[in-house]
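Quick one - inputs below.
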Amino acid sequence: MPLMKSWVESANSADCPFPLNNLPYGVFSIAEAEPHCGVAIGDRILDVTAAEAEGLVALTDMPLFDVPFWNELMEEGPAVWAALRDRLIALLSDGAAERDKVEPLLVPMAEAELHMPFAVSEYTDFYAGKNHAVNVGTMFRGAENALPPNWLHIPIGYNGRASSVVVSGTEVRRPWGQLKGPNDEKPRFAPCARFDIELEMGAIVGTPSDGPITVQEADDHIFGYVLLNDWSARDIQAWEYQPLGPFQAKATATTISPWIVTKAALEPFRTDTPAREVELLDHIKDCGPMLYNIELEVTLAPEGQAETTIARTNYKQMYYSAAQQLAHHTTSGCPMNAGDLLGSGTISGPTKPERGSLLELSWGGKEPVELKSGGTRTFIEDNDTLTLKGAARGAGYTIGFGDCVGKVLPALDDPYARG
Amino acid sequence: MPLMKSWVESANSADCPFPLNNLPYGVFSIAEAEPHCGVAIGDRILDVTAAEAEGLVALTDMPLFDVPFWNELMEEGPAVWAALRDRLIALLSDGAAERDKVEPLLVPMAEAELHMPFAVSEYTDFYAGKNHAVNVGTMFRGAENALPPNWLHIPIGYNGRASSVVVSGTEVRRPWGQLKGPNDEKPRFAPCARFDIELEMGAIVGTPSDGPITVQEADDHIFGYVLLNDWSARDIQAWEYQPLGPFQAKATATTISPWIVTKAALEPFRTDTPAREVELLDHIKDCGPMLYNIELEVTLAPEGQAETTIARTNYKQMYYSAAQQLAHHTTSGCPMNAGDLLGSGTISGPTKPERGSLLELSWGGKEPVELKSGGTRTFIEDNDTLTLKGAARGAGYTIGFGDCVGKVLPALDDPYARG
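Output:
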């Protein structure tokens, strides 16, 4: 598919992340105004709440965009998702008849504050990237026991904390937690010393379900994708995670990129999951190309200094697709709702510069990562800014997500002091 | 504290679970009417939604009970919680001046259908009963490694699935899942063969928080308690839970009792957590009696047969209080919201008949439990009804929760068949 031309000129360059092919969904506000639903086009945002109020977008009897989140559209299902995309393309295409009515509803993206694009119903995080699982398993259990016995048979996942999901730009406070090193006699309560990122993609469930669904149905139920940084306190995790999994180590924050990129926009970039090393059971087999070719990058910038790209990889490195993860999630009959967020698990490629966490990049802190601005990192230091970037590159156009940014503030001196 | 007398005569007997001392909060409907908020008193329910509409209950400028859940009251905080209780006691006490206005708002509990009493924001399950942890650890890891190294230092918890929480009376369908026995060559997808209960108490967070809170603050934030059955697919759990904890094994359903028993009603039954075997760090120390003396019982009834009491224990057997669990939950800065539900973890006493799961009662299936109606059980069989019961017994009165009941339906022949 080539670039689709828009009358919004800034959307027509090959490296603009928001061409007409993309049309991702977000929530924005300008100055003191209430947050509205918006669609990114070039360097503008189309105010969809206003477009609906003026009758330019009329998909259903009841308004969908009078709330500052996209969950109401999700609930409508794939036919309405497609109808909205068709309508937006018609309004924004080069030569559109209604350009005069639409143009006043565009606002400059540079002036907008972006908010959470959807209300997170529940958040599940997976562990479904094989290179990451092998790296972490090798560090913690040795190369021979790197992959748990179940790893090649199910996408391992655990429930995360929806209340901790924040939008790009939200500052993240280094947490306190209970820590005990292998040689410490007793645990202590102290600030996390091994605070880390996890480079992930987040899949957003659009269609509710109330029983087991197939992988094809699961793919149909997914509304779109975001970049996702699953901030991880490695020292808290090491002490707490046996036997029932990560808990407080993952509860400080999870940051997502501000724009929901729809499945329709990603359609040309579909790709197969890698060859299976062990045949999967039928209910969890991919039935088509359900991964995506999305280039991913992580940068780290110390305060006031230039950023260094510390990792580059690709979403197609995943072993399990989001559709497989969602299908597995429903096997028990677990009810799924619009706005459920599924983290892919950390995405690492096979070589060292492709690793999606500092834990892997610094090999547990033993091999510091060099920064362009001077200095090194094993884990995140105070006031570092970490950014995830993602782009699917087509012939003459780019599908971008908007950066997924978080600055890490120092831990509080006394976390129980009330300000 | 003695029995408080009500003009609702049925509330004044020593074994009535809903005397004036209790006043638990639920949501009910009669015939085809919309669900309303209600308070149990004797064998009646006071329609609080109607009482508010008629001006008999007026706590805030905006109505709190025009929705079929109690979250709006929770959000108001402890002063309003106390004001409501005072007002209800005034309206329902023996000799109340407004009896004539209140009496028409009472409906017979026997005719009411009970619904979820609150909207579950997120659900966390703990593993904080020591006898249970030792029993399970001994079965899975041997007596010498029964307790994980962190167990005596933190209340171990994991995030559960809020969408799977249902009210007492909801039938539970035996799930399918991926299973692999220790001697199986490969996993298979099949109905769960080791479906189990977990006898727990659920604590409901009323006051939101957005950073670490102390144990005393945590106790202040708790709105009330319910009985909680954390249905568990032991064979699914055995295969999936390493390394990131239980996932689909716990996602079929969690059943709660229909009435939220307030902290105020339980106040006379406060008791200390057991002596610490290892001193806790300061931030997680109990600072007063924060457990409760609540007698608990589990019954099992095969279809059409009498029930057998298979376990009797007490909430005071817990090692960690709900306040300690909530305080630990916030150490990372994890935001908590009104309607968050915290499962205590399985409550087992020190002797065999006090064990709160069939896994423990049958010692992993090796020691079948005898039923009064004939036959035995290792795990739940199709069409068995499992019931949790709870009561705090005061001088001449009882604080009841309402039974927490679930019947287990057979697994579907084909979970992917669409009806």
